[in-house]
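Submission sheet (multi-component)
Chains listed below:
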Amino acid sequence: MTDKDFNYPPLDESEFGLLFDAAQKGAPEMDAEFLTRLQSQALEAMPQEPMVGFTLEKLSLFGRISDVFAQFGGWPAGAGLAMAGAFGVLIGISPPDVVLDATTAYFQTESLNDLVGLGAETEFYWEDV
Amino acid sequence: MALDISQNQQDAELLMRFSTGDRAAAMALTSRLAPIVFAQAFRMLGDRAEAEDVTQESLLRLWKTASDWDANRAKITTWLYRVTSNLCIDRLRKSNRNSGDEVPELADDTPGEDCKLQTTARAQALQHALQTLPGRQRQAMILRHIEDLSNPEISDIMEVSVEAVESLVSRGKRALAITLAPQKKALGLEND
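Outcome: structure written.
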């Protein structure tokens, strides 16, 4: 300590002790209103475990399904498949003449029952449909 | 103030309950930790509004880490002291402020016993003198002599070696001893 150049002798340990003791006793106090605000913020920041877990699980499952769906072409592919299926059903219910001609020529019969191996008692012709 | 082991266990338990959505734990933990953080920030910054901002930010960071908190890794108070110190140092650097022009009011100057007035005067003089120290010295002095932490704890908080802490405290004390010397008589130190 180079205190010989100063007019006042510097503080010694015991004097420091008194100052630190005073600082500890006179700790700055918070406003009650500020503490209330902090408590409100703590409640807002508090995680809502069950809700969070449920949401994440749902999101995770939805995400996995979306991933699989995307692998097969996503919504455009899904729409195309649905339309093709609808046409298939329509042709099955009311086949156009060109389909009947081709079927008759190929299988040598106009009877659907012949094709599937049913007896004559359940005879069923394309024209009747 | 130094915190004992049981207090830290209590804090860890409260934080665990906080992370599971326990409202009572949130209230209790805030009531216990906020004054510690605020006092440290106020002593570092010397400004009530800024100390409140830092307190708010420090606690918000604690709440964010609550669910990932590893009780075996660190003490909550040590972690908070570190966050608060860093936030204060950042503010001091940004404002390029080393010495506090404004002397913070530590306590009400309500007339009372001479002893109380003297304690208040001493605390204010020390606070004013602390504001003249460089940020890191001030931080080390506050943690060592006012918060009463050990040098290893401070080294953990400030992320420097114990030797560096000792050096900061030593230099800070030397500077304070000279700064406060002219006020010895006024503060009643010569008669004690």
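Remark: The two ends of chain A are 115 Å apart (CA to CA).
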